Please model this.
Amino acid sequence: MALRITSLIILSFMLFACKQNSAPPPLHIVFVTGDEEYRSEESMPMLAGILKRELNAKISICYSLDTLGFIDPNRTDHISGLSALENADLMVLFTRFRNLPDQELQSITSYVESGKPIVGFRTSTHAFLYENDSSKVFYNNQWPASVFGQQWITHHGHFEDGSGALTSVSRSEDANNHPILRGVDPFDAYSWLYHVEGGEWKLNGDCTHLLYGKALQSNHEINGKLDEYPLNNPIAWTKTYHGRSNNLSSRVFFTTLGHPYDFKIASMRKLALNGILWALSLEENIPEGGTNADFVSPYDPNNSGFGKKYKLGQKPKQIK
Model:
C-alpha cells in the first residue's frame, strides 16, 4: 500500500511538473482579406509569414474565393474561413465594400464585440457596403467609424498608381516614444492620402496619432478645397473600441496606408508588424529597431487597380 501511495505521489508530481513546463499555445492571428483594389491577398500573407517566423503564431488567412476555390477579390459576397475567428487572438482586417451574407458578417462582428484586439488597413474604413439592405446600413459608415475611428470620406487622388510616391510620411511629435514607431523612419508612400480629419471631419474616440501624411499631389489642391481637405492628415493611430452591448474594450491599431508597393518599404512593414504586436499587448517584445521585417519569401505584388489586375489562377496558401 505504501509503495502504491508513493507511486501515485510521484505520478502526480510528474504530471504537475509537465503541466508547469508545457509551453503556452501559440497565438492565433486571423487575417481577413477581400479588397478588389490593393492586393491585400498578397500583402497580408507576406506579413503573416513574417509573424509566423517572429512569433511562431498560428496563422489563418481568409480570402474572397470564387465557386472553384480560386482567389477572386472582385467577389464581394463571400469570404472563406471566417469560422477561424471563433478562437482567434487577433483579427487583421483588410477588406473593401463587402456585402457578406449574415453568417459571415456575424463572424466578423462577433469577434469585434469580444474585447479582443483588432488591426485594420486602408479600405477597412469602408469594409462593407450594403446598398440594398436597410437593416445593415449601419455597417457602411457607422461601424468603421466606431471600430477604427473613421469612415470613408475622400482621398487626394490617384495620379498614376504605383509610378511614384504620393504621400510623405512623418512622425507625430507627440508619439516619438510610442513602441509602434520603433524602427519606423520617415518614408514616402505609394498610397494616395485619405482624408480623415479636417473641415467637418474628426477621428472618433480616443485616437492617438502616430504618423501624419502629406499629399505630394492633390486633386483637392487643384480644385481649391484645401480648407475642407488639407494636405496633411493622420495616417496611423491607436484607439480603443468599446463594445456596443457590453463593457468589453479592444485595442485597435489602424493605418490608412496599404498600397501593395508600400509594403516593399521596410518602415511600412515595421509599422504594420509593430502595430500588430502592440495590439496583442506585446509592445515589450518590440526591439528598439523595430520588429524584424525581413521577407520570408520574395514579395513581388501586382500593382493596385480594379478589374482583373490581381494574379489570376491563385488558390489560397495557408502559412504553416
